[in-house]
Design brief:
Order of helices and strands: EEEHEEEEEEHEE
Number of helices: 2
Strand content: over 45%
Radius of gyration: 14 Å
Number of strands: 11
Shape: globular
Structural class: mainly beta
Helix content: under 10%
Distance between the termini: 40 Å
Length: 133
């Protein structure tokens, strides 16, 4: 079973930065796309940044555009999320995910389907990000 392991979470003051890493053995090469999701208490899991691994095309949720950057290091099989200008609204557990299976469940525009939780078949255990004011 392929494992995905996140790291880099922690506590930071508003305005600060964090970089999350996801060690994903082989998945940066074999996956269709990878993404970072987050889930705050009492809220649904939401996609914040995604990348199609072959083309390198990236997509971001409106709430993080201009502040978060997703990237992949194929040599190290690592998915990264650089987060800047953090606000208390960014407090959540962050998960990396990979879509390995090729078929899409729904025919949707690319910028929509990349953030569909049900499309992903590999998940990390999550890392907590807490932003204080």
């Amino acid at each position: 079973q392929v494992q995905m392991v996140e790291s880099g979470g922690g506590s930071v003051q508003a305005g600060g930065s964090l970089r999350l890493s996801c060690a994903a053995s082989g998945l940066t090469h074999s996956s269709v796309c990878m993404a970072w999701f987050r889930q705050a208490p009492g809220k649904e899991r939401e996609g914040v940044a995604g990348i199609f691994t072959k083309s390198g095309r990236t997509y971001y949720a409106d709430s993080v555009k201009g502040r978060f950057t997703i990237s992949q290091d194929n040599a190290k099989n690592i998915l990264l999320l650089q987060m800047t200008s953090l606000t208390t609204e960014d407090t959540a557990t962050y998960y990396c995910a990979a879509k390995v299976g090729g078929a899409w469940r729904e025919i949707l525009p690319e910028h929509v389907r990349i953030f569909k939780v049900a499309e992903y078949d590999r998940w990390g255990q999550g890392t907590q990000v807490t932003v204080s004011s």
